[in-house]
Amino acid sequence: MADVNRGNRPLSPFMIGQYYRPQMTSISSIMVRITGIVSLGTAFLIVLWLLTAATSESAFSVVDGLMRSFIGDLLMFVLTWAIWYHMLGRLRHVVWDLGYWVEVEISEHLGWAMFIGATVLTILTAIVV
Amino acid sequence: MRYLTDRKRAQGLGSGRSGTHHHWQMLVSSAALAVLVPIFVFTFGLGYGGSYEEVLAYFSRPFPAIVTALMLIVGLYHILQEVTEAIEDYVHGVAGKLLIVAASAVSYTLMAAGLFALVKLAL
User: Fold this and answer.
1) Yes or no, beta carbons of A60 and B55 under 8 Å apart
2) Which residues on chain B are in Cβ contact (under 8 Å) with A68?
3) CA spacing 20 to 30 A to B16: which of A17, A66, B88, B96?
């Protein structure tokens, strides 16, 4: 492939920093990635909780006690928000992939809808659960 | 004279070297999780917060056990794809490859450990 320029291609500047102002489209997209990675930690906590429940009452009471302490509750609230946000963000990707709502203005509205929707769903979860 | 097609020129580039399969898997698991996540959050949430005996009894019922098992498999698979994509974007070379191996190991270990716990709770 001699005619392909393999080095020396122009790179676009990184999206966070001095080159781009923060926008709803970029921030809402970055948050999808962050919440996705954070959810690996959530999965770790849930598996740990299940494993201790399957092991013994003393092991369970340590982990369950920590997760249901004030700080644990706060953490679970944030992690639940992350799950809801990520789900809404991925749902937006599904809609985009099907070819709908790709316009910038609609995407910005959807970004707001993800932040507000995740918060409402998290509060609902905290009330129901 | 150029013998290469535009497709051939683009193939194998991009941070992940290939992407359509990954992209399709993300669409499939995202759509599945849009249904599964709400069911899981409330099902798991109702079992979470009880005493030791209540938790044992709750997760030995079929519905909570099956929903949690599904979430462990589909959810962790999705998270692994998500993490892999992030690594491909920002960490390159040997470090990137090893990180992807590590992320896979962690994800599948969590999956197996969680399923083992569920089986032990349910039986």
Assistant:
1) yes
2) 49
3) A17
A10 domain residue, yes or no: no
For residue A112, the enclosing domain spans: 24-128
Whether residues A37 and B114 touch (CB distance < 8 A) is answered with no
Q: What is the pLDDT of residues A70-88, one digit of tens each?
A: 999 999 999 999 999 999 9
Tokens found for residue A65: 């006690």
CA distance B37 to A120: 15
pLDDT tens, residue order, chain A (129 aa):
556 666 777 777 877 778 888 899 999 999 999 999 999 999 999 999 999 999 999 999 999 999 999 999 999 999 999 999 999 999 999 999 999 999 999 999 999 999 999 999 999 999 998
Domain residue ranges of chain B, discontinuous segments joined by +: 21-122
- The beta-carbon contacts of A63-69 under 8 Å, at least 24 apart in sequence, are A64/B52, A64/B55, A68/B49
Class of CATH domain B21-122 = mainly alpha
Q: Is A109 annotated as a binding residue?
A: no
| CB A3, CB B4: distance < 8 Å | yes
Q: Is B106 on the interface with A (CB under 8 A)?
A: yes
Across the interface, whether the CB atoms of A3 and B120 are under 8 A apart is answered no
**What ipTM does this complex have?**
0.89
Q: Give me B110's structure tokens.
A: 């969590």
Q: Do B2 and A3 touch (CB under 8 A)?
A: yes
Query: How many domains does the structure of chain A reveal?
Result: 1
Residue A87, sorted as left (phi over 0), alpha (psi -120 to 50) or beta, turns out to be alpha
The shortest C-alpha distance from A111 to chain B (Å) reads 17
Q: Is residue A38 part of a domain?
A: yes
Whether A12 maps to a domain, the answer reads: no
